[in-house]
Design goal:
The protein has 232 residues and is of the alpha+beta class. 58% of the residues lie in helices and 9% in strands. It has a four-stranded antiparallel β-sheet with strand order 3-2-1-4. A hairpin with a 5-residue loop joins strand 2 and strand 3. Helix 2 crosses helix 4 and helix 5 crosses helix 7. The longest helix is centred in the N-terminal third of the chain and has 26 residues. The C terminus is likely disordered.
């Protein structure tokens, strides 16, 4: 925002614009965009005089409101972990004090809850059946969720992460791309593509090779007396 160049601040014009207000200061060419709530709270109007201290207080309050509104916009898009929100708000040039206030305002209302975020994230990924436990944990850590909360969320879905369930999930995921694998004529290259596909989704090497073995055994017309389609 524009920095006032004189001690005495005089409002020259206040005009509504797209749910905000444009404010022009006497002697300043740049128009300021302020939240509606700030303008109404301070009762800004043309000809109003303010001290420099009052003006800076107004700007800080406006910045706090803008930061909180941006936080709500992000939460409207999807549920976020606290660290994600902090990072995105900081990337939008909001100062740390404004971010702290926005987080503190939203948290008691249940809008920010990392434990709930972790549970929802894991539940959705388990339901989708396309992400391994390791990948989920890595993704949640990257989003800034505490390791204790991650472990609790994973533990609630422990049945889905049993070895047999993980193998079934990985095999189902690999078979969904069967046509892609079939287009590769070289068995060794086909095997490596499947391994890379599963490893990229966080599946352990042991699970990946079990999937390879299962697909080899399930291949139509497979004859174990001849060279298997997926050589070891």
């Amino acid at each position: 925002m524009t920095t006032p160049t004189e001690y005495g601040i005089v409002i020259e014009e206040v005009k509504a614009y797209r749910r905000r207000f444009r404010v022009k200061l006497r002697g300043e060419a740049e128009l300021l965009s302020l939240p509606q709530e700030t303008v109404l709270m301070w009762r800004l109007h043309a000809g109003q005089a303010m001290s420099r201290q009052e003006w800076w207080k107004l700007l800080r309050e406006a910045e706090d409101l803008d930061c909180y509104e941006k936080l709500l916009t992000l939460l409207d898009q999807r549920f976020h972990a606290e660290a994600e929100l902090r990072r995105k708000l900081y990337q939008r040039k909001f100062p740390r004090p404004a971010i702290d206030k926005a987080i503190a305002r939203a948290t008691p209302m249940g809008l920010i809850d990392d434990a709930r975020f972790a549970r929802i994230y894991v539940e959705e990924k388990v339901r989708g059946g396309k992400t391994s436990e390791r990948r989920m944990m890595a993704d949640l850590r990257r989003r800034g969720v505490d390791s204790t909360l991650i472990a609790a969320a994973i533990d609630e879905q422990s049945q889905a992460f049993a070895p047999d369930a993980v193998l079934e999930q990985a095999l189902r995921l690999a078979k969904q791309r069967q046509r892609t694998w079939d287009r590769e004529e070289d068995p060794q290259k086909r095997k490596q593509k499947i391994l890379r596909f599963l490893a990229a989704r966080g599946y352990a090497h042991g699970i990946c090779y079990q999937v390879i073995d299962a697909m080899r055994d399930d291949a139509p017309g497979a004859d174990k007396r001849r060279q298997p389609p997926f050589p070891g």
